[in-house]
Amino acid sequence: MKGRVHSLESFSKVDGPGIRYVVFLQGCNLRCKFCHNPDTWNVNAGMEMDSDELVKEILKAKPYMKKSHGGVTFSGGEPLLQAEFLLEVCKKLKKYNIHIAIDTAGNFDIENHIINELFNYIDLFLYDIKHIDSNEHNLLVGTKNEKILKLATYISNVWKIPMWIRIVYLPGITDKNNALYRLRNFISTLKSVEKIDVLPYHDMGVYKWEKLGIEYQLKEQKIPTDEECKKVEAFLNSNKSSKISNV
User: Fold this and answer.
1) Residue 207: phi, psi to the nearest 5?
2) What SS3 class is residue 129?
3) β-pair partners for 199
4) Which residues of the chain are under the pLDDT cut of 50?
5) CA distance 206 to 213
6) Separation between Cα atoms, residue 73 and residue 101, nearest integer Å
7) pLDDT digit string, tens, across residues 203-234
8) Which is it for the CA torsion 82, 83, 85, 90, positive or negative?
9) What per-residue confidence (pLDDT) applies to 1?
10) Among 42, 119, 198, 208, which one has the highest count of C-beta atoms within 10 angstroms of its own C-beta?
């Protein structure tokens, strides 16, 4: 089976535990206004690779992945858009006892049988929550968030797969109308959350929008400081339920 790959990164320390080999799969079903990789959106772009070819590339990094207790992370774009290809790759990787993480925005139905089969091979989800308010979520990324929150609950509370929550902090947007309180409350309902990461909004991908001829709508958006992000992260980690007391 063949899939479409945007790019490969052989050494990352920010996409899961240990040193990670990161596969950026092509295609995305969201249109985030703050996206720094809009070149990953087009499902027909990127380079075509078959599953054996991709597994062979990933296994080249096995020595340092194992030594650092790392593994492979599938990102994007949105990796679950290519769930069938991803399933085939993950089945092959598990024969080599590779730790597998998926970085997803979760905009999928929980009834998707291929994604459900894929869950059997995943060790960690890096779960991106763009905005807790569904209407604000729609304004920010082009769709409401009900499916996203439902899938997060399903992965965490039914499958109980370890999860790291990731939030991009946009001052005045993702903290609007008590959103951080509501987000913290939602996260407290999840049973397998190990970590909450708050990532700062940045505009380093604006040149890609310009190159693609797409209007960038957040030109006036404030870039938060590291201190501001740490405060948001501390808040989201405060008053936790016992279920995520290890965060």
Assistant:
1) -65, -30
2) coil
3) 168
4) 241-247
5) 11
6) 5
7) 999 999 999 999 999 999 999 999 999 999 99
8) positive
9) 87
10) 198
